[in-house]
Hints:
single chain, alpha/beta, Rossmann fold, four-stranded parallel sheet, globular
Amino acid sequence: MIEGRNLWELVEARAAATPDARMAVDEHGRSLTFAQYRDEATAAAAGFAMRGVHEGSVVAWQLPTRLESLVLVGALARLGAVQNPILPIYREREVRFCTAQTRAGLFVIPGLWRGFDFEAMAAAVRDADDGRPQIEICDPALPSGDPVNLPAPAEPPTAPEDAPVRWYFYTSGTTAEPKGARHTDATIMAAARGMIERLDYGPADANGLAFPFTHIGGITWLFASLLSGGSNILMEAFDPVHTPAVFRREGVTLAGSGTSFHMAYLTAQRADPNEALFPEVKNFPGGGAPKPPQLHHDIKAELGGAGILSGYGLTECPILTMSSAADGDEALANTEGKAMPGVELKLVTFEGERAGTGVEGEVRAKAPQLMKGYIDESLDREAFDEDGFFRTGDLGRLDDAGNLIITGRLKDIIIRHGENISAKEVEDLLYTTPASVTWPSSVCPTPEPVSGPARSWP
């Protein structure tokens, strides 16, 4: 694993260490090496500099999971901009809230994607806020310029606690409006380092990245790739038929990244049980949604590898816990793994007492990947307890080995005749019913077959 004090330093260090290694490949067969990534990001940085982006500029962007999205992140990091990745499902109301609160000067969008006109939405957002932010359509090409005109990179921080805020990530949470979490390169890097260790993600690995890259988990995988030298297989959007075919073609070893994905892989494997769907698979990273315990056993038995390696975290504090292949099957099936390096967990009962082993309580955390607070500082008062622990709002318990079992949400408890019932427990039971892992064909039409030779960027 290489070292770096910020994202751009990682980009340069990785390009110097393994310039010709594959960094990413997309569903169309286009690929980037680490050296190409550095060069493309530098040229794009020069292009954005000509549009007025400089250190401290706030740039919102809402692109699909594409090679160009990775390059955009590198370009903005080279300029020292503050980035606000916005989930593709957000529409005018949410986007307008985000860009107004962050005072974004530029909004980068794909134009028309999956039948939605992002340009028209962006124009409505701009017109509602007196002409701000400016709009940059990247469909898919990014601006490009001569790197000779770029200023020197920003000086990296001497310590993680001194790192400037470079990221605004929004989460819907439990309030009426999205909540903007302020992160630094150091907070995301801390999560990436722990993830590399638990998942054994290295230069020979290819991670399947089919969820929105604008999610904090997508950015964490970028950091992890630069730190470890591992690559990513990019899908603009997950498809239960197309995605497994692409992952198989590109030799996926880490097939993530959530329960619905894993169920789709299982369905695809069962369609042809005599041939391994992912012959090189090592494990199945999981997170973001409850996992039926039986799913781990099914995945390991039918798809191979170590099975599902679950992680738990939030936008405000990503990947607080994660499993490893060394954990036993019962722990992998029933828990979200142990606390990551540097993470301190505290479970608090409804009575306000610290919960003992096996006792349910609200999960609270201190961690190097913890956000620096919300953009709206008034939210911080309720977000942190008197000891500085972040209140996750999730319920869980710790087993004897220190593994975390998530049991529900503080506001997601079913009360029947005065008794509390966990919604997750009901979901786990539903999974054990017949045909529970059959993916209906109505979810997504069958895409065009994956074919044609792989080609290099662009």
